[in-house]
Amino acid sequence: MKSSTLLALLCLQAALVMGIFAAVAKENAAVGESKAIDINPGQLKCCTNCNFSFSGLYTCDDVKKDCDPVCKKCVAVMAYSGNKFKCTDTFLGICGPKC
After folding, report:
1. pTM
2. Which is deepest, 31, 53, 69, 88, by most CB within 10 Å?
3. CA-atom Rg of the chain in angstroms
4. Domains and CATH numbers, the chain
């Protein structure tokens, strides 16, 4: 094969691969938008089990009788003494003082 033909084939192959990567990246960006972290800027009254992540975000794993008023997303948790609640928000900064 001539070197010019080989070069043309390599350029076409590179363009095809770049197009595939661009399409995959666009699809992943659309999927990732729905999975964004909702950061609650409010601070909990108190939190005994505060978990820190290396991204600088905190979550509180306390299970209580009721949710804190600054909590945006509270889930019910089954417990021996009946239903209790856990705040599943992610906080920027500290969760709060220990309960």
Report:
1. 0.52
2. 88
3. 24
4. 39-92 (2.10.69)
